[in-house]
Amino acid sequence: QVRLVESGGGFVQAGQSLRLSCAASGRRFSDYDVAWVRQAPGKAREYVAGLHQNGISTVYADSVKGRFTISGDNAKNTVYLQMNNLIPEDTGIYYCTASMSVVVTETPMGPYKPDMAEFDYWGRGTQVTVSS
């Protein structure tokens, strides 16, 4: 199994940037589809961005498209989430998660939105707070 540890969260002003890291250990992250999921206070977890195990294909939630970028570094066995032009609505706990199934994919109606139960491994999360 894979162990995931997030870092890089913090408190920023609207318009600023953060880069989150997800360090994998135990297995290669490239053995899984990896995603970032966030949870705002009082809300359900939201799928933000996904990286296919091929290391190339990505999907994004409409709310972050054009502002966030997910990527992976095989040498460091780490997945990143670059977040630019942050807005207060981006506030929440950001979790790194991995699935043994193919969940990062497109459908004729747009990016597939996996159920949270489709993810097998989770990190503990890192807090991101964006003030206006």
Summarize the SSE layout with pairings.
Layout (H helix, E strand, L loop, with lengths): L2 E5 L2 E4 L4 E8 L7 E7 L6 E6 L6 E3 L7 E6 L4 E6 L8 E8 L6 E2 L2 E2 L9 E2 L3 E6 L1
Parallel strand pairs: 2-13
Antiparallel strand pairs: 1-3, 3-8, 4-5, 4-9, 5-6, 7-8, 9-12, 9-13, 10-11
What key phrases describe this protein's structure?
four-stranded antiparallel beta sheet; 13 strands; mainly beta
Describe it.
By secondary structure, this protein is an all-beta fold. It has no helices and 13 strands. The chain has strands at residues 3-7, 10-13, 18-25, 33-39, 46-51, 58-60, 68-73, 78-83, 92-99, 106-107, 110-111, 121-122, 126-131.
Q: What fraction of the residues are assigned to beta strands by DSSP?
A: over 45%
Major beta-sheet overview: 7 strands, mixed
Average pLDDT:
96
Q: How many β-strand stretches?
A: 13
Rg is: 14 Å
Query: N-to-C SSE series?
Result: EEEEEEEEEEEEE
Overall 3D form: globular
Compact overview of the structure:
By secondary structure, this protein is an all-beta fold. It is built from no helices and 13 strands.
